[in-house]
Amino acid sequence: MEYLATFPNQMQAIEYARALGLRGIPNRMMPRPRMLEASCGTAVRFTSLQAPEILQKIAPVKSLYRIEDGKYLPVE
Question: 2-74 adopts what CATH topology?
Answer without folding.
Answer: Alpha-Beta Plaits (3.30.70)
